[in-house]
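Much of our argument rests on the idea that a fold can be written as discrete symbols. This step matters because it turns folding into a mapping between discrete strings. The record that follows shows the chain in one-letter code together with its fold in token form.
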Amino acid sequence: MKLSTLSIGDELLFGEVVDSNAASIAARLYDRGVKVQRHLLVGDNEPDIMDAIERLAEWSEAVIVTGGLGPTADDFTARSAAKVTGRRLVLNDEALSHVREFVGAEGGLYHSATERQALIPTKSTIIPNPTGTACGFIITWNGRYLFFLPGVPSEMIRMLDDTVLPFIQERLRQRVTIGTRLFTLFGISEAESDELLRDLPDPESGLSVAFRVSFPTIDVKLRAEGDPDSVAALLQMGGEVVRERLAEFIVAEGGATLDEEVGRLLRESGKSLSLAESCSGGFIAKRLTDIPGSSAYFLEGAVVYSNAAKCRLLQVPKRLIMEKGAVSRDVAEAMARGAREGAGSDLALAVTGVAGPGASEEKPAGTVFIALADGAGCRVEEYHFSGDRRQVRLLTTITALDRLRRYLTTG
């Protein structure tokens, strides 16, 4: 089935609000074996809306439209749909009854303008809205199915799941299974990972590979289409190839994050962790504690930005800072050891570096030391990251978590 989507709203067109509806629709359809093949975005302008509906209906078998069904003067979608399809716009009894009942049930003040949401093109099928005032509607026109839904994401998703998706699935001529497998990489460029997997895509069998950069990580997504057995076999084969060639750089699979993977490994190992952060400013602790249940393994963290804090909270000798500098291998090790001893944790991770500005010729911006202490000692690595202050801090955070992941995986 050729299917397109249309999003309507000045707030979307001007970048004031992110168009999350288009992504939600595409993802839900894809899970059911249907791919959105075209998408348009227009503002609250009647001629533009009419043109977009007509263009997409010429090419597509089905069009899902979101937005512009509210009670205000800039909500033109229903009227535009009526004009394009040559129908009258009338008060729909079912939609009007819903509006009145919903407003009354919510204890809101009824305004005559609210009834505008019950103006529906004739010969339409109403799409119920259990969570809002504006009903949607379906128009069958020239053999095409046109679905019109409100722009409020929570309302749209409920109506999509309850009515639109079942309607589409009932009319699919051919059902295709679509499967995906996701790998998250760190420490390798997109070009390098693409080169290592250059021979993996197999269009004839239905296997494809897609890359998405979300600095500083890269997502590699395997996609397979066909019958259920062939999809499972293709993803199994593709996953084995990815693991074989990129094992060193895979930090998570199946949509999990690096933070969640580290949390899982800590929980399974039974080891506790403490942190000492300087240049990362508490970012590592935040990412770990964003995970529910992290109190099972994360004991405490110290953000020691000043030299005095390093000395007072982590027992780093003042002499060591004076001799080696706060950004040094020795101070990073002292921070990790101090954090571990102070918290009584099995492991301690410490970072100190120059995120910028304030760099020197000896220690340019991006110079970072990451230390990991355990009962057997402490290992320190020196890094030289590039980028602005935000990027250096993010790279420091992700690299530190990856160091911890590698330690928990291999020791």
About this structure: The chain has three domains: 3-170, 177-253, 258-410. The longest strand covers residues 177-186.
